[in-house]
Amino acid sequence: MYTTKASSKSVYDYYDSRLKATGWTIDSTASMAAGTNVIVAKKDSRTLGIYIVDAGNGTVSVTAGIEL
Asked: Most buried of 6, 40, 62, 65 (most Cβ within 10 A)?
């Protein structure tokens, strides 16, 4: 988990492009109110979930978890 000074869209776009470029398959995505986005990706036997939340003050909170 970390926070960064960025827009939730730019963080989403970064993970979307990097995951695809490194062989992950985007399994599902969701956009919710208040700039919250979720990406679920799979590669081999692993599933990765990334939660991107706009904190509303110019920062974005990113939480990632992987299931082996």
From this structure: 62
